[in-house]
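Sequence, structure tokens reproduced for absentees:
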Amino acid sequence: MNSSELQGRLKSLAYRIIPLCESLANKKICKIIEDQLLRSSFSAAANYRAACKGQSLKAFTAKLSIAFEEMDETLFWLEAILELKLVKEEKMKLLIQEADELCKILASARKTSQEKIKNGSAKS
């Protein structure tokens, strides 16, 4: 998968989360989760996009780390919705699967990037 495809998957997941959030009940806990979920999913996509525009491997790695952390938070909120039974499981399955896959991809890319820096493949 190239960086454009990954950018597309991250943005697509953020867009797919919008209708989920709009379907949540009008309760205080749902509003908190909705705000956090929208913020983290869009932030993951935006930070990965910024990472791809980085001027150095260190800048790329820093933004990639943020993208990973935000996607991991997105996965947390999706799991919380499921565990709190705020939405039916079948509606959550594909979103959780995609968020989990994206977390793994971002974590792997971050690890590779960090190893390159450690091994001196990148200059400050």
User: Anything to note?
Assistant: Residues 59 and 72 are 20 Å apart (CA to CA). The mean pLDDT is 94.
